[in-house]
Each structure stands twice: as structure tokens, then as C-alpha cells.
Amino acid sequence: MTLDAHQHFWNYQPQRDTWISDEMKVIRRDFLPEDLSPILKKNLIEGCIAVQADQSEKETDFLLKCAHEHSFIKGVVGWTDLQSSGVQARLEYYYQFHEVKGFRHVVQSEPSGFLLSNDFCNGINYLEQYNFTYDILIYPHQLDEALLFVKKFPNQSFVIDHLAKPLIAQRQLKPWKQQLQQIAMHENVACKISGMVTEADWKNWKVSDFKPYLEIALEAFGPKRIMYGSDWPVSLVAAGYEDQLAIVRQLIEPLSPSEKKAILGGNATRFYHI
Fold it and tell me: In the chain, what is the straight-line distance between the N-terminal and C-terminal CA atoms, in Å?
């Protein structure tokens, strides 16, 4: 199955969605399954993973409703308060929905030390019990902390979103490269080649801008732990759906047919238990 392992849906609410800045006004509107379905079909992608964009269980329930109504949504990465003393009960509740594959928190907006805090780690402790995955959303400066974090949970399935958002526009590889290589040494950690266009120069990027970053990720994780994701509709601030997909397809062209299939869906199918 070909899969887009990372995209979002929302009903735009200005008071809630303050992260969508003036320079991102092209995505200040609703983006729903009916908008994405024809795009996926046109690009021969059979399904997707819907990932939370808001820190609320209302968001998780909204994505669940989308998945119930649209069979091409193969899984949901939702949100619940992993720091709550009642986290196990909430995970037990969401376990009844086969569409819920895992959870995410917007750690990129949290202060230093968040990933290693006792309350958050207590919540992560319960995920394995329910076979839930965890998406790690961070900036490069948080990779050292993320390394200590994944070391604490050797049996938990993790995936790093957006290659940890390297500074592509600045053509900066260090220390991101070494940090990514270190975290990739842990076999329970995968990586999404997603969100790359929004880390580049939005108006002047070239395919060659992304080549070193993708090559580093591929060498570190190998083709069995890399997943393609569009980050649609956020990616629209810098590229159309076909354009961002073409970047990935062009850069993985030298790989074998089986490796390309793994990156474009096979790995995500396995990781998210689809």
C-alpha cells in the first residue's frame, strides 16, 4: 500500500490556530478529507495517516470521525494528556478504536527538559502496553534531549517527524547530522521525510537543496525505517502536493524497487499496524 504517513485536517479557527502566521495565510481555511482524497488518487497514493495539529482530545475525536467516514484514512495519530495522572484510563478508552495508532505532543513548543519530565515519561510508559506509537515533533536543538528520551524506552516505537526540522534554508548540516546519526542507532526509532519544503526557502527552493538531508537520513536509518509524509496542508505554504512528492520520488530513484515501496508506504503500514 502506498501511504502518505503524515498529513493534517482542520476546520480553521483563528483563535485556536494562532500558529498559522500571516505569511502562512494560504492555509488559513478549512482542510478536510474531501479536499485530500482526489489529490491522493491523482498521485496514486492509497491512504494516509492523519496527525494531530491541536493539543486537545477534541482534535483526536475529530480525526477519528474523519477516519470513520473516509476509508482512505488508515490511521490517526492523536493527542491525549500524557502528563495526566489519569493517562492510562484515556489510553484504555482510545484503544477501542482501531483507527487510533498512536499519539503526539507538540514538543517543539515546550521548554528544555519537557521530554524527560517525570509526568511525561510516566505517560510514555503506558503506550507500549496498548501497542501505541509515538511521533516525536522537535527542532534540531532538542535532538540531544530526544536521544536521552528514546534511550529510556527501548521497546517503544518512535518516529521523528520532519527529520527533526533541519535548517535547510540556511544549508546547515551540523550538529543536526551527528545528532540524527546518534538517535538512529536505536532500532526502535524511525524517521519521516516530511515537512522538508517548509524548512527550505519557501519561494526559491531547488530539489538539490534537500539532497544532503535526505541522504543523511537514509544512511542513518536505512530504507526500512524511513517513511514518506507530505505534511499537507502545511506544505502548501512552499509547494503544491505534486511538487513536494516529486522531490522525494526523485531523490529515492537510485534505490531498489522494494526500498522505494518501503519508503512510500510499506514502512508506515508496518509501523502503524495497518
Answer: 10
What is the domain extent for residue 121?
3-271
Q: pLDDT of 24-80, one tens digit each?
A: 999 999 999 999 999 999 999 999 999 999 999 999 999 999 999 999 999 999 999
pLDDT of residue 154: 98
* DSSP H or E segment with residue 182: helix 176-184
Please tell me the total count of domains within the chain. 1
CATH number of the domain encompassing residue 77: 3.20.20.140
Residue 16: partners with Cβ closer than 8 Å, 6 or more residues away: 54
Element counts in the chain: helices (H) and strands (E): 10, 8
Give the pLDDT confidence score for residue 225 in this predicted structure.
98
Nearest to 227 by CA among 189, 175, 197, 253: 189
Distance CA 196, CA 216 (A): 13
